[in-house]
Amino acid sequence: MTEAISLTVNGRSYELAIPPDTPLLTVLRNDLELNGPKYGCGLGECGACSVLIDGMAARACVLPVSVAVGHEILTLEGLASEGRLDPVQSAFIEAQAAQCGYCLNGMIISVRALLNHTPRPSSAQLRAALEYNLCRCGTHVEILEAASRAVAISTAESPEAPHE
Amino acid sequence: MSDRQPPTSRAEPTELPAPLASPKRFGVAVRPPHYAWNGEHFVSDRLVAVDRTSVAGLPGQVEIVIEGDFVGVVADSLAAAQDAARHLRLEWRAPSGAGQGDATPLPVATGAASRELAAEYAKTASSHRHDYGWPSRLRWGDTPGWVVADCSDQRLMLWGETITPEALIHDLMTLTGLPAERIELYGTTPTRVSGLGRHCGDDAAVDAALMSRQLGCSVAVWLDAAYTRDVHALGQAQCITLSADLAESGDIADYRYHQAHASGDIAAVGLWLCGRPPARRTVAGRTPFFSPYDFNNAQLTTRRDDHGTGRRNEHLAEIQQAFARESFLDEVAHESGQDPLMLRLRHLDDARGVELISSVSQRARWGEALSSATTTSPDRLRGRGFAYSQLPDRHQRIPEGVRSAWIADVEVNRITGDVTLTRLVVGQDAGPEVDTDRLQQTLQARVLGSARPLLGRDPAFDEWGDGSKDDKNVDPTPGGALAIHTAMATKESADAEATTSLLQPLDDVNLAPGVAVIANALFDATGVRFRQPPFTAGRVRQALHDQADSLQEETPGRPTNRPGRRWLKAAALTAVAGTAVMAWPWKGAITPINRPAANLYSAETIERGRLVAAAGDCAACHTVEGGQENAGGRAFETPFGTLYSTNLTPDEGTGIGQWSYAAFERAMRHGISRDGKHLYPAFPYTAFAKISDTDMQALYAYLMAQPAVSAETPANALSFPFNIRPLMAGWNALYHDPSPFEPDPGQSELYNRGAYLAEGLGHCSACHTPRNAMGAERSGQYAFSGAMVDGWEAPPLNRLSRSPIPWSEASLYDYLRHGASSLHGAASGPMAPVVAGLGELPEYDVRALAHYVAVQMDAPAGDSETVQADAAVRIATAQSGPAGMEEGERLFEGACASCHMESGAPSFTSAQISLALNTNLHSQHPDNVIQSILGGVHADHVPGLGNMPGFADSFSDSQVVNLTAYLRARFAPDQAPWRNIESRVTTIRQHNNSPSPTPNATTRRG
Ligand code: FES
Ligand code: FES
C-alpha cells in the first residue's frame, strides 16, 4: 500500500507516494534518479549503496524509506558544494583509486562519515572505518592511500581543527 | 511532551515570581509501599535504608531528599527525576505494634469510626438507617499540571491550583513554621475554590514545599495520575449515620443524626510522612448543625475530637451534612413510597421555603416524567433528583440564612459509566439580584468544574488512559455537551442590601445541596444509591454491574454460578441484544440479526473499542499479509493441523454482521460461534473471557462500526480428533475457566491494570505459556514459562527468563513502548506487530503491563550498576570470536559484522544493541536466531527501529548452521552449544516454505 512520504535529499524535499517499506536505495535510484549509490549485495554486506543520513553512514539497501523520513539524506551527488568537490572526492581522483569504480561511492561516503565524526583519524581508524566496505577488484591499497590523502586535504583546509 | 514544560505557559507570567516561572529543579515523591489513613490514624511503612548508590551515575544531578518516611528524588528535569525514582532502591519495614503508638497492622481498614458507630446504632432498631461517607481527597481533575514551590527561612511561594487554599496554607504553616502572611499562593483561581474538600494537588504542593525547603531552591512537581494513590490511601474523612422511623401517617419520627468527626479534612500525605502531623485536638464549642426541617424527637450528635485535621472546616461540614441529610430523605421517601419532594414539604414549617420549593418544582416540571424521546442513544439512562437546604448567610446580611432548592436531571451512559448533568434548576431565596450567567459559570466551575471533582474519572483496572490529556487516547470528555439551564426563582429579602449581589462570589452555602441533588438523580436514573462522592465513571459503572449481579441473586431458581451471572449482566446491560435474554443455550445457534446501525453506539464507546482492539491485537491474527484489516484468512500451523482466522468485519454473509452482541460475547468468552459450533482455542477465548463487560461491549461497537469486507474463510485442515468440533465442548469443560477478571485487592492499581491487560485482552499467555498435549495452556508454575509458537520461541516471562542481563521493570517498559531495550535487544518475529499494536495504547497501560510482567519475573525497578557493568563485560568479551570456526567467522564478518560490530564511526544502520546481550542467543532453543537469519527482522512499523534483511535466499542450510553455531559460541560463551541446529534449520525452512537456495540462485545477482 502506498503512503505519502516526504524525504529531504541533498537539501531538497520530495513528496512521494510509495509503499513505506520500499528500500531507500530503490527510491533514490528509481524515483529520484540519484545513481551515485550503487546496488551491490542488497543485504547490507558490501557498502556500495551507502549514503549519509544526518552525517552518519547508512546502508540504503536495508533501510525502509519510512525510517529515513525526517532525516537529512546526503548522497554522493550532494557532496560537492558551490561547484567545489568535497576533499574526499578530490583525494580519490588524485589518487586514481579505482579499478571498476563500483565500490567507490561506499568508500567515499564512509571516509566522509568518519571525518564528520573524527576529523583527524589515525590510519588504524581509517582501516577500521573501511573494514566492512567490499571491493571486488582488490583496489584496497589505492583506496587507503586516497583516504589518507583526504585526511591531509581536509586538515589543510581547516587549520583550526584541533590537534590530536 | 510539550505539556511538560515548566508552568510559564499556564501562568499569568506578569504576576509570577521568577523562581516559580522557571523552577530550578524537578522533584518526584516516592511513597512507601503501604500507607493509609484508617479513619483514626495515619499508618505507613517505615523507611529503613536508602541505597544512594542505586542512583549514582544517573544523569541530571540527582539528589535524594529524606525527611522521616518522606522520600523525594530531585533532578534537573522531570524525566531524569522520574528515571532516578524508578532506579532508587529503598528498604521499608511494615510498622510493627511494638513501640509505635500510632501503628495498626496493615492492610488498613477504612472507617474504623463507622464500625464503632454501627455497633452503637445496632441497639436502636430504626426502620430506616444509612451511612454516608465523604472522601478525604478528590482527584485533581483531568489534566496533569505543575506544582512549584520555592521555600526559604523567610517565605514560601507556591504555584499550583488548589481548591482549598485555607487548608493548604494551614498545612504549609505546620510544615515550615512560617506565619500565614509569609506564604504566597499563586495560580489558584478563586472561582474554582469549592467547599467540596481537598484534592491531591495539596499533597503535591506539600511534596514540592518539602523538597524545596531542604534543597533551598525552587522545585517543580508534576501532578498526575500517580497522585491517585493518595486519594485511595487517605480513604474516608467523614462518616455520617442517619436513622429514622416512620409514623403511621408517613411522617418522620425519631430522626437521629450522628457524625463521626467534628469536621473532616485530612492533612497532606507529605506532612504525615515527614513526621510533622498536625496537632490533635478536641474541637471546642458545639458543632453547628444545619437543618431546615422540623422532625419529631430529633437527635443530633457528633464526636468532638478532630482527628487528623488540626482545623475546623465549617464550609465542608455544611456540605457534608446537606449531602447526608438530603440523600437520606430521598431514600426514606423511596423506601416508603412517597414523593421525595412531598416528604420534605411535610416537615418544612417555613412558608418562604415552601414557596421556593413549589416555584422551583413548577419550573422544572417535577411531576412530569422525563421524556425518553430526547435520549441520545440507547446506552443512556435518565433520572431526576431534588435537594434543599437552608444555611446561615456567611455575610450576615440575611438573618434567616439562605434557602436553596435544586432539581437536577442527569444522563448516565451505562456502558462507560459517564454521568452528564443535562439540566439544573436552582432556586434561592436570598439577595435582590441574581446574575444567572454568573451562577451558571460558578456551578460549572465548582460543582462540575473543569476539574470536575465530582464527576471526573477514577482509574479502574479496565479504565483506558490515566485520565490525563497528555495521553493521545484519552476518552472524550462526557461533560462536553453539558447544558445547565438555570431557572432562578428568587425572592426579595427584606433585609438584603439592594445593591450587592450575593454572587460575588457565590457563597458556598448555596452549593450545599449540589452534591445530594446529583446523588438523588443518579438513583432515579439507575436505581443505585451513591452514599459517598465522587460519582466517577468507574464507580458508576461498577455499581451498575454489582446491581445486575444482585438482581440475579434475588431471582429464585436461577443458578448463581459465574457464567450465569455474566449472562444476566450482559442481558441487562445490552441494548443491542434487544430482548431480555436471561441465558443463552450452551450450544445451538443464536438468531442472526440485521447488522446494527452504525450510529447505534456513541463515538466514545467506539473509540474505547478501538483501544480494546489495539490491546488485543485482533488484526495481527485476523489479517493476511497485505490483506484487508480483520478480514481473516490467515493460516496458523498448529500441532493439530492448519487453522484459518475468520472474518471479523461486519459483512453479513462472510463476517460477523449478523452476530448479536450475545453471540459475540459467547464467542469471546466461551469459544462458541454464533451458529453454535465450537471454536478452537487457537483463538484465545480462554484469555478473552477475562475482558470486562464494558470493554467487550465497546469492542463489539467498534467492530460493527468498521467497513464490511466480503471474504470467505478457508476451511480448516485439522487432524483427528481435533477435526471433530463437538469434542471441543469436552475440552472446554476440562481446560476453560470462563470467569471474569477479578482485581487482586492486595495489589496496586497499576498491577491490576497490567494483570487485566496481560491475562485478558493482551492474551500474553496464548504465546508465552506452554500447552499440554491437548493444546491447553498449562497452569501453575508453567504459567508464562515460555513456549514455541508458529516456528518462534516465545521466551519465558517468569523467573525462568534466560536473558543474559536480567530484565528490570524499566527495560520491560522500554521494550514494550519503544520496541527495544538497550540491555536486551529489539522486538522481532511475531512480537514486532504486538509492540506496534501497543503503540496505540496510553502510556499508563504500557507502564502497567511492564509492571505486571516485572512482578512475574521478580525483576527490580531499574538496572543497577552491577548489571550495567556485567553488560559492558559481555560486550567486551565478544569483541573477538572463538577459534576454529572459520566458516562461521567468515560468514559473520562478511554478512553481519558491517551492522553488528562497531567500525569506529557512528552509523545510521548499525544494530545499536550488541548481540552479546541478545536473549535469543542465550536461549535453550536456536529457533529465533535461525528465524532471524533466514527471514530477517522487520520492525519498521515500530518508529525508530530498523530492518535486518533475511538471508534465506543467499545462505545454504549448512551456512546457516555454521553461522548459528558461531554466533552462539561468540556471543553466548557461557551457554552450552546448541545440539539440534541442523534439524531446526530444516524444519523452519519447511515451515516458512523457504527452501535452501540452489547454487544458481545464490549467483543470480552476479
Ligand atoms: S548494496 Fe547495500 S550494502 Fe551492499
Ligand atoms: S573498484 Fe571495483 S569494486 Fe572496488
From TrEMBL, chain A:
Keywords: 2Fe-2S, Iron, Iron-sulfur, Metal-binding, Oxidoreductase. Residues 3-79 form the 2Fe-2S ferredoxin-type domain. This is (2Fe-2S)-binding protein. PANTHER family: BLR6046 PROTEIN, OXIDOREDUCTASE WITH IRON-SULFUR SUBUNIT. It comes from Marinobacter azerbaijanicus. It comes from the Bacteria. The lineage of its organism: Bacteria, Pseudomonadati, Pseudomonadota, Gammaproteobacteria, Pseudomonadales. InterPro entries: 2Fe-2S-bd, 2Fe-2S-bd_dom_sf, 2Fe-2S_ferredoxin-like_sf, 2Fe-2S_ferredoxin-type, 2Fe2S_fd_BS, Beta-grasp_dom_sf, Diverse_Oxidoreductases. Pfam families: Fer2, Fer2_2.
From TrEMBL, chain B:
SUPFAM superfamilies: Cytochrome c, Molybdenum cofactor-binding domain. Residues 1-20, 985-1006 are annotated as: Disordered. It comes from the Bacteria. The keyword Heme applies. The keyword Iron applies. InterPro entries: Ald_Oxase/Xan_DH_a/b, AldOxase/xan_DH_Mopterin-bd_sf, Cyt_c-like_dom, Cyt_c-like_dom_sf, Cytochrome_c-type_DH. Residues 604-707, 749-857, 883-971 form the Cytochrome c domain. This is C-type cytochrome. It comes from Marinobacter azerbaijanicus. PROSITE patterns: CYTC. Keywords: Heme, Iron, Metal-binding. SMART domains: Ald_Xan_dh_C.
